[in-house]
Each structure stands twice: as structure tokens, then as C-alpha cells.
Amino acid sequence: MTATVRTVLGELPPERLGLCDAHDHLFLRSPLLPGQELADPVAAEAELRQFAAHGGQALVQWTPYGMGRRRRDLVTLSRATGVHLVAATGLHQAVHYDPRTLRGLDLAALFVAELTGDGPRAGLIKVAGGYHGLDAHARRTMAAAAEAHHATGAPIAVHHELGTAADEVLDLLCDSHGVAPDRVILGHLGRFPDLRLHRRLADAGAYLAFDGPSRTHHATDHHLFDCLVSLADAGHLDRLLLGGDTTTAAARGNPGPAHLPRTLRPRITAELGEPAATRILVTNPAHAFAW
Q1: Residue 73: CATH number of its domain
Q2: Boundaries of domain holding 144
Q3: Given this model, what pLDDT does residue 139 score?
Q4: Residue 11 maps to a domain
Q5: How far apart are CA 183 and CA 166, in angstroms?
Q6: Which residues are annotated with the PTM N6-carboxylysine (predicted)?
Q7: What is the pTM of this model?
Q8: Do 145 and 156 meet the contact criterion of CB atoms below 8 Å apart?
Q9: Domain count along the chain
Q10: C-alpha closest to that of 192 among 147, 250, 131
Q11: H/E/C letters for each residue in 123-186?
Q12: What is the pLDDT of residues 270-280, one digit of tens each?
């Protein structure tokens, strides 16, 4: 069976995905961010149009179940702007939900239904660890994500709190639940710039997502090229992904998804060469999100 990327408009050959923001949010809602909801389709469209004007072609929204994904709006936005959009199923940390929302849910069945059912389908499973560890909620969610992965082939993308516990997550998903490392995308690693750990995770075969150029996560920006060059020098260009990860209304457009093609791509080209920039922003996402 030929692997495809599952966008909100349907299946897409990986080679047509194009330059990709591999981790971002057009819509997001959490009780931890009152008054900062990303819920404005007009603002989302303006951001996508600016992204496209600078050469952006695809964006992967990591907003999971129960956090205001607005999948129908993603369909409308993709049609209006021509940008390929990939939606997520999965769950974030428990603190982002009313406990009543999660009580009694068959998580694996939910994830599979959103990956394969009617309506705009999800194209990845988003889960989350904790700060330097995994609580019972994280372990339950990751077990369900692994079950859904084995049923469908969908990749698993992981939020790491301040970039920590990536090795523990990889051990749980791969050693305990049999997920192949190249089906796992480890997010926020720029927030914990342990270059030796990054190399070990890439050696294992996982994808490493560096996703910080926004006002929310600006403290990671000055580590980015040290991390990229370290991994490139170790022969791991094929493990790297980049995203913007805008999570609040205040951070929207500062600098937004357009920062990747407008600013980061020229800098990567200058530092590592054009083939490396294409590998990180085009080729790697096409492989990471195809199933």
C-alpha cells in the first residue's frame, strides 16, 4: 500500500506536501490559557496567506481532541488558501481538560475513529509527557496512541514539557509498546538543548522537532542553530523537523508560520546548504507524516 499524508482535504502523495511547518496551531483552547484562545478563522486565514506568500505549502496542527481544533474550519481554510493542513487526534496533559471530559473514554477507539472515520480525518496522534517524567494519564494516553498507531500506521507526535523526558517517552512507546522509532516525532527539544541527548534520540531513529520561534517560546531561538548543526554534523539531517508552535492569541503573527520560509530557510541555507534546508523543511516532513 502506498503511504500518503492525511490532510483535512483527503490523502496527499508525500511528494506534494511541499515546504512544511511541522508543528503549529491555528486553533487552540485550554483552561490554562484563559483569554488567549486561538479561535479566529479570519486571523488564521491571514496567517496562512502570509505563510503561502513566502513559499509555505503545508502546516501540521498539533491541537488534539478536546482543545478547540475546529476541523471544519481547517477544511475551509485549506480550500481558501491552498495550504495543505494536517489535523491531530490524541490528548494533551490532563491539566488541559475538565476531568469529566475524559471519564470513560475508550481512547484507542476514539483515536482510530478520528484517523479513519467520516469527516475531516486526523493525520497524526498527539500525546504529551510531563516535566522529567510520565504520570498515569501520560502512560494511559501513550498506550492508547500506540494501539491506534498499530491499527492505522499513523505517526505519534509528542509534547515534551520544557523538552524533558524524551528518552523515557521513546522507551515507553518503542520498547514497551512496539512502535517503530521512525514513527515517533519528539517535540519541543529546543527547550532542553542537551546536544548529547539529541544525538542519542536521533541515533535511535526518532524525528526531532524544533518548534519555538514565537513570542511564547522565544527563549529557545538562540539554541536552534547549535542544535541543528550538532545533529547535522552527526549525520542526522534526515531526523530534523521545524515548526512555529504558536499557542496563544498574543503570540499570533509574532513571527508566525511565515518565519520558517521567510527567515529560517535562508539562514539554514547559509549555514548548512540548500540541500539541507530542503531536507529539513520539505523532505523530512513528507516522510514523517506519511502513513
Answers
A1: 3.20.20.140
A2: 20-288
A3: 97
A4: no
A5: 14
A6: 126
A7: 0.96
A8: yes
A9: 1
A10: 131
A11: EEEEEECECCECCHHHHHHHHHHHHHHHHHCCCEEEECHHHCCHHHHHHHHHHHCCCCHHHEEE
A12: 999 999 999 99
